[in-house]
Amino acid sequence: MPGKTPDLSAVSPTRPAAPWLGGKRNLAKRLCALIDADARAGGHTTYAEPFVGMGGVFLRRTSRPRAEFINDRQREVYNLFRILQEHYVAFLDLMRFQITTQAGFERLLAVDPETLTDLQRAARFLYLQRTAFGGKVSGRNFGISTDRPARFNLTTLEPDLEALHERLSGVTVTCMDFAAFIDRIDRPGVLFYLDPPYYGCEDDYGRELFSRARFEDLAEQLGRLKGRFMLSLNDRPEVREIFSRFEIADVKTTYTIAAKGALGERGELVITSRSDRRAKTHRT
C-alpha cells in the first residue's frame, strides 16, 4: 500500500446546493467512508468525478487530497459551480429577492437559458432545481410539501452557498464528455468516483447527454485506467454483465416512495478496480 500522503487535508462536509435526481444521499455515507479511508491510507493524491451532478458524494467527503477535479457535461451544472467559485457575491445579490411561487417557477421554466447571462443562467438553474419536485432535471414540475418551509429561501440557503463557495476553492471544474475527462486526468495516483445515470434511465438528465450504449464504452475505458475507480450503479443484470471484469459489491439502500412517505429498498452496486477489494456488501 502506498505511503500516507503529506498533501491530505481535512475538510468539513458541505450540503449540495439543490436536490438532484439520483443524488446518492442514502448511499453517500458509505461511499465517502470508503473514499476518505483510501485517501488517508495514501491510496490517491488526486480525486476526480466525471459525473458530479450536485456533488452529493464530492461535497460529503472529509479528506481532501492534493488535487480535485469535478466535471459534468450538463452545462447548467458546470455554470452553477463556476459562478459560485468566481462570482459568488454578485450571484447572491441576484438571488436576494427570489421567493417560492408557482408563477415564478413556470416563468423561469419557459425561459431559454441560452438567452441569459451566465449569472442569470446559474440563478435560474438553482431556483428551478430547488423548487422542482424530486430534484428532477428534465420534465420538471413545481414541488409542494406540506411538512416543510418554502423550497427556496435565501435566508437559510445562504450559509450553505457560502460553505460551498469556500469548498470549491482550489477545485478544477470542467464541462466535458466523461471519456475526454477521464483521458485528460488519468494517471497513477488518481481515484475516479463515477455516478453515471442509472441503467434504463439514461434520458433523466437530458437527451443526448448519455446513451445506453456508452456503458460499454465506459467499462472498456475503466479497464485500461492507470489510476483506480469506484463506480455506483443500480443493480441490473445488464450492469453486472457489462462490468463483470471488475469487483462488484452488493449494497442495499432505503429510499422514500414519492407522495406516499413509505420506505422502500433497492439494490445498488459498488463497482471497483480488480485490485481494490474494500467495497463489501452493506446495508444503509
Written overview of the protein:
The chain is of the alpha/beta class and 284 residues long. Helices cover 33% and strands 18% of the residues. It contains nine helices and ten strands. It has helices at 25-40, 75-86, 88-95, 102-109, 118-131, 154-167, 178-185, 214-222, 237-242; strands at residues 9-10, 46-49, 63-64, 67-71, 172-174, 190-194, 228-234, 247-257, 262-272, 282-283. The strands form two sheets. Strands 5-4-2-6-7-9-8-10 form an eight-stranded mixed β-sheet, sandwiched between helices. Strands 1-3 form a two-stranded antiparallel sheet. Strand 8 and strand 9 form a beta hairpin. Helix 2 packs across helix 5. The radius of gyration is 19 Å and the shape is globular. It starts with 8 loop residues before the first strand and ends with a strand. Residues 256-263 and 279-284 have low confidence and may be disordered.
Helical content class? 25-40%
**Shape verdict:** globular
Order of helices and strands: EHEEEHHHHHEHEHEHEEE
DSSP strand content: 15-25%
Structural class: alpha/beta
Low-confidence stretches: 256-263, 279-284
Can you count the helices? 9
